[in-house]
Automatic annotation (TrEMBL):
<feature type="signal peptide">
    <location>
        <begin position="1"/>
        <end position="22"/>
    </location>
</feature>
<keyword id="KW-0732">Signal</keyword>
<protein>
    <submittedName>
        <fullName>Uncharacterized protein</fullName>
    </submittedName>
</protein>
<dbReference type="InterPro" id="IPR029063">
    <property type="entry name" value="SAM-dependent_MTases_sf"/>
</dbReference>
<dbReference type="InterPro" id="IPR052514">
    <property type="entry name" value="SAM-dependent_MTase"/>
</dbReference>
Length: 315
């Protein structure tokens, strides 16, 4: 009888271990992903001051953002049916000038990716405007590339650049000899998506439109870094597997790859990028659709941050 009880106890223990190892709710040794709990994911790659996330979270405040609102409605559901609590926004922005602005929106905690990869002061990683509303807005102060490391970026300088929120900040010095070089951390976007978004845990509850399948949407405006990032996303298969829709602005510039020294004229680099876009849009088994379209309304934003909220909607 004692042996039988022992064997029965072992079987129960093995069954419990099986649930822990393979069950939907518990996994032994699994590292938490930033994407866990996100039904929809918006990736604002080259976010500048983060206004596209505001188009998504607070559309009624931005009546002139017609393109951005239309694209979000098509892929995340209509503004009346979707709920911001179902959406996570990840903002990649390398320009240190915009850090304070993103701190005010950011939801990042000390345990999040920002601390693990890019140490920062506690004040830069604290919950702010959006997290108080139950929305997830994660700021990642880095550029993107086809490898991890550090690359040289340029503040272009000049009155026009200062008046346009430094839109031209990037790895190309447009005004030769007049830019200010800074060393900026970059992440391999394809690998980041594998680590933080792929196989993310779905939330136990969907607050908004339950008929809308989960989506991953990316806006890309990275001032010529797309010549490294898009081919890497395409040929690793990460885009086709994970990203439903990419929209953005692509730049025809001369490109020099720092690690190899290879230089391409803007005509050649543009042709290379177009081939990647055609590849993504034509492969039968690739879920990704990519369009050259963006919304540049509300350059300086100017809309106050939200204060009053109820059921995922804020004023």
């Amino acid at each position: 009888m004692t042996v039988t009880r022992v064997l029965f106890g072992l079987l129960v223990l093995l069954a419990c271990l099986n649930v822990v190892l393979f069950g939907n709710n518990l996994e032994l040794g699994r590292k938490r992903k930033l994407g866990d709990g996100c039904y929809h994911v918006f990736l604002d790659v080259g976010s500048n001051i983060g206004v596209h996330s505001r188009f998504l979270f607070e559309p009624s405040k931005y009546p002139d953002a017609t393109t951005g609102r239309r694209l979000f409605n098509e892929h995340f559901g209509g503004e009346e049916s979707r709920d911001n609590r179902d959406i996570c926004s990840f903002a990649f922005e390398p320009n240190p000038v915009h850090v304070t602005r993103h701190r005010e929106l950011s939801e990042v905690s000390e345990q999040a990716f920002l601390i693990r990869a890019f140490p920062c002061a506690h004040s830069s990683c604290s919950p702010k405007a959006y997290s108080k509303k139950g929305w997830r807005y994660v700021f990642i102060p880095a550029g993107v590339s086809d490898r991890d490391g550090n690359l040289t970026f340029y503040h272009q300088g000049g009155e026009k650049e200062e008046q346009s929120e430094e839109w031209g900040f990037g790895m190309t010095e447009y005004r030769r000899g007049k830019g200010t070089a800074v060393n900026i951390p970059v992440v391999r976007l394809a690998q980041w998506l594998k680590d933080e978004i792929k196989d993310r845990k779905m939330p136990s509850r969907v607050h908004g439109d339950r008929d809308m399948p989960p989506k991953v949407v990316m806006k890309m405006d990275v001032e010529s870094a797309e010549y490294a990032v898009l081919p890497d996303l395409a040929y690793t298969g990460v885009a086709c597997e994970l990203v439903d829709f990419i929209f953005g602005e692509f730049h025809g510039v001369d490109v020099k790859y720092e690690d190899t020294g290879l230089e391409l004229s803007h005509e050649v680099s543009r042709d290379k990028l177009r081939a990647t876009v055609e590849f993504l849009n034509s492969v039968r088994e690739c879920k990704t659709t990519l369009v050259e379209e963006d919304d540049e309304a509300y350059l300086h934003d100017g809309v106050p941050f939200p204060t009053k909220c109820h059921l995922g909607r804020c004023d």
